[in-house]
Amino acid sequence: MRDSRTPDPVDTQLVLVTPLLDDPEGFLPVLAGALAAGPVAAVIGRFAPCDERTLVNRIKALAPVVQKAGAAFMAEAPVEAVMRGGADGIHLVHTAEALAEAVSRLAPQRMVGVGGLKSKDDAMAAGEAGADYVMFGEAHVSRYAEKDGVLPPFHAVVERVAWWAEVFQVPVVGFAPDIAGVEALARVRADFVALGQPVWDHPEGPAAAVAAALALMRAGAAA
């Protein structure tokens, strides 16, 4: 992923978000097929709960495959596991404490990406604290149980990405709830568009999903 300290503008790029993985080895052929379908900037690896040693081994299984394809591997994992597993960076749910620890221990050798942002103020604080990107649109992390894990309204995500892209230098990732949403996020100049389950559940397979997403991304960027 592009470093936030690089000011040159880039076209919108694709980020893939894995399911919660408990069998990375079994997922590798699926992931390799998706990566071979077109340029992917990064993969955010998500993992089912496990002990630290198992988590490190899961990261070690995925990171080389992603890196060989020319993409960055960002792990949703504790800082220590990110370092020991050889990931290119960490993707974390925003808290000031977690971000401060990640930046102090990982930057600048590894990237620090932030999601779970509840407000514009949270996003601006994350950017000022050293985040290499901010992500809008992934499932809510909420104090209210009925909202936890629920995707926010997509129109609100597009509006927030457009606001950020126009005002700030720190790269912004827009999370698309489906492949069709990629075009709208590219149109408002998201630096990256993230896709999760719609890629892995695509009826024609992940490679077809990536190809379709890239085509929509080009259409949105050209609008």
From TrEMBL:
Record's keyword terms, sorted: Membrane, Transmembrane, Transmembrane helix
Keyword Transmembrane: yes
Pfam family, one: TMP-TENI
GO biological process entries: thiamine biosynthetic process
UniProt entry tagged with the keyword Ubl conjugation: no
InterPro entries, A to Z: Aldolase_TIM (IPR013785), ThiamineP_synth_sf (IPR036206), ThiamineP_synth_TenI (IPR022998)
Transmembrane segments: 26-48
SUPFAM superfamilies: Thiamin phosphate synthase
Domain Thiamine phosphate synthase/TenI: 14-195
Protein name, entry field: Thiamine phosphate synthase
Species, as recorded: Phreatobacter cathodiphilus
Organism ancestry: Bacteria, Pseudomonadati, Pseudomonadota, Alphaproteobacteria, Hyphomicrobiales
